[in-house]
Specification:
Layout (H helix, E strand, L loop, with lengths): L1 E4 L7 H8 L4 E4 L1 H20 L22 H6 L19 H11 L12 H9 L19 H7 L11 H6 L3 H32 L10 H5 L2 H13 L15 H4 L1 H23 L7 E3 L9 E3 L9 H28 L21 H17 L20 H32 L9 H10 L12 H14 L11
Parallel strand pairs: 1-2
Antiparallel strand pairs: 3-4
Helix pairs in contact: 1-4, 1-8, 4-8, 8-10, 8-12, 8-13, 8-15, 8-17, 10-12, 12-13, 13-14, 13-15, 14-15, 15-17, 16-17
Amino acid sequence: MAVVVASRRDFTLDNYRRVSVHGEGVTLGEEARRAMAASRTGFERLLRSQPGTFVYGTTSRPGIEVGRTLTPDEQRSSTWSLHGERSPSFGTDALEERVVRGMVFARLANYVEGHANSRPEVADAIAGLLDDPLPRIPLQGEVGPGEVIPLSHLMAGLSIDLLPGERMALVNGSPCAAALGADIAIGAPGRQAAAEATFALSVEAFRAPLEAYDPALGDLWGDEGETAALSGLGSWLHDADADNRLGHQAPVSYRILPKVLGQSRRAIAELRRAAAVSLRSVSDNPVYFPPDDVHPHGRAISTGGFHNALVPPALDAVSAAWADLVLLAERHVTALHVGQTADHLPHLLARPGGAGGRTNLLGWVAGSYLEEARSAATMTHLPSGWADAQNDVANPTFAAYRKHREVARCVDAALALLAASSSQALWVTDRLPAPALRPLLDRVRSIVPPLDDPAGRAMGEELARLGAALAGLVRPPASADVDR
């Protein structure tokens, strides 16, 4: 199947998922083809009727040479085939293919209503990139005021002769930011669900009182995210044993779970909004407005639309919220080891004569991931444009995305450590969690079995597999859904 795009209304997160994750192609609808053809005709009339008008990259040189005006003959001779063109960025880490596919999809939003002043054939060629092996786009070195460097990678395999004005539409704008934001936005709910399920498993393992998760608190707090987190935790803990609990309140790290998980839900919701807006946004420079009653040939104006100011701070907010989840996971792993009162075993995760204190190493490892998450979860500021007088401010999106990937890796690791610790504590004390959590517990133990050996065993590879798989292991009850 193929996603049919007739207008910018079709650039949704659902369609992004179909193209990027499920590998579907993209076809231009007839409405889009008519709009592009009409706009291209209008743009060519504009150039003929106003030969002295400034159109960046068409009647002038791009970048630092913007002050140099091109004659009509130079404009025609500057038609360009992108075949063989290469970006100078490099690095050992590259974007996954699904993200590159998402960039191709997002690129077409500027075209479908005629704002790229390009022929339908150019948009067809861009959509056709999805049918062939896609280029490798490094994660490092992708700087600049817009996205010319990564888009030059993306368009390097495009072989089509371009008319005046069509070159800039290929490599200008911010489709990369839209795709990077959408990639995290569609994956974040799965990780959020895994976090809520794992923390609920920890609540059961620690025997924390359930009153801190009473849904009635939502009316008192009045925040949609916190209310949803209460509902999510409540779904996992439904029918939990209310009697076999601590006789006093649990540590702060257990009682504030709905608040911190609510913070994460709010951040994800804002990222999803930012990504949805960015996918359908026209972000080119110059941007072409099709003909209307006032401008019979349309108009082309210079803008800063290529600078995406929505996605980087939204990514930063999710990163910060998830770094806090890593802190809570580390605290829970520690709490499961040290216990709280005399009615706990001296070491909650070890049977007498069993694995002993070997599992305390899990807490050490959790502390390491906590520091890595905190180091990565820093605010991404606008980079300088260095020595270029025209391009004097750079784009922060790739930096925010790279940092978020690091935080996400730490979240996965911390949740794996907590899930394994919770499983061990329940096994040591011969208890089962609430019914909704039992399938998850079985899956956790299928990857990281409980320790029953005084010498312990090397668990690193098991924990790595659990961290990589955990989000896929969670099938939340309907009321725990986090907008997948």
